[in-house]
Amino acid sequence: MAVPRSRILDLMKVQCRIFSTIFNPANERLGNKVLRQRLRGPALAAYYPRRVATFKDLKALYPEAEMYDTEEEDRLEHIQIAKSRGKGAPKKKRTAAESTLKGKKR
Fold first, then answer.
1. Where is this region: Disordered (predicted)?
2. For all residues of the chain together, what is the average pLDDT?
3. Could you tell me the CA-to-CA distances from 53 to 41, 47, 57, 71, 89 in Å, in that order?
4. pTM of this prediction?
């Protein structure tokens, strides 16, 4: 003796109401599993340290003060030395035609 489908669906509705779950007789992918999970935003925000002021921020706040950034000067000097040896970054292409002409292999 088979139980009618409508009776099974009614039973599923009552079961979902009792256990506070979603009634989904068509077994569609609704994403309830993801939506029930706790939010990760606050935990991730607490994990990473707060951003501290950088030298660039201080220079922007006080443009009249003369400040000397040794790390930035060292970086620029290193780039200049590499360019003088021919090891610097290539120049950017200004137009699309320049990039297609140079990029093609024959």
1. 81-106
2. 88
3. 23, 19, 6, 16, 30
4. 0.42
